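in:
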């Protein structure tokens, strides 16, 4: 009888101990699950480009089918850059940029060349909602006189298609008071030579004409300033 009571008492103690462990372990496990989920969410929302939200290439042709302000194809020389996939480990870093000889919407010559100046080359599409957000923000920054001296900003209007929204691109940029020199690229040849994969697309170039880095998506001004300050002069 005594042995039976002892057995029941030991079993009860074991149940109490297990219950106590469960009460302490469940919050720890739950916190770990939340942490893992947060890290996974951060990785998913960060994107591979390194910038903010971007617009993928449309399934339709990037070539324009006529309309206001559309110029001819730019002339490109040099070796094309590999297609951009992600900022980290970008194989284009250190490579020489292709030279581009083109014109703006009024037919005036505009070029991208290795002329000893660091550069920011911005690829924009008239139908890209993220480009439509980025352009006025950058223009306001320029209007404030905040752009660093000695760094050349060049934009490329490409992905031109009159069947897509916000056409034509010259009227859009005029409405925004865009003062950055524009190369009109109705054929997408400049975009292809620089490895564009989404809009907006930024290519940062050192003074020696080599790629410092590339990224896609909306870019905050503070991030733009940080990258520009790192360009080799």
């Amino acid at each position: 009888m005594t042995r039976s009571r002892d057995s029941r008492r030991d079993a009860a103690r074991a149940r109490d101990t297990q219950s106590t462990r469960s009460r302490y372990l469940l919050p720890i496990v739950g916190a770990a699950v939340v942490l893992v989920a947060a890290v996974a969410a951060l990785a998913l929302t960060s994107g591979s480009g390194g910038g903010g939200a971007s617009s993928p290439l449309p399934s339709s042709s990037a070539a324009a089918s006529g309309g206001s302000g559309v110029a001819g194809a730019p002339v490109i020389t040099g070796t094309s850059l590999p297609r951009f996939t992600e900022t980290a480990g970008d194989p284009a870093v250190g490579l020489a940029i292709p030279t581009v000889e083109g014109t703006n919407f009024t037919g005036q010559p505009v070029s991208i060349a290795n002329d000893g100046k660091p550069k920011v080359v911005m690829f924009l599409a008239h139908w890209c909602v993220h480009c439509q957000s980025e352009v006025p923000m950058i223009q306001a920054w320029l209007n404030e006189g905040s752009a660093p001296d000695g760094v050349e900003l060049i934009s490329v209007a490409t992905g031109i298609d009159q069947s897509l929204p916000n056409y034509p691109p010259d009227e859009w940029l005029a409405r925004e008071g865009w003062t950055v020199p524009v190369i009109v690229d109705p054929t997408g040849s400049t975009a292809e030579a620089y490895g564009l994969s989404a809009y907006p697309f930024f290519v940062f170039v050192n003074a020696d004409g080599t790629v410092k880095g590339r990224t896609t998506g909306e870019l905050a001004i503070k991030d733009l300033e940080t990258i520009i300050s790192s360009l080799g002069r």
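note: Helices lie at 2-46, 129-143, 169-175, 189-193, 221-229.
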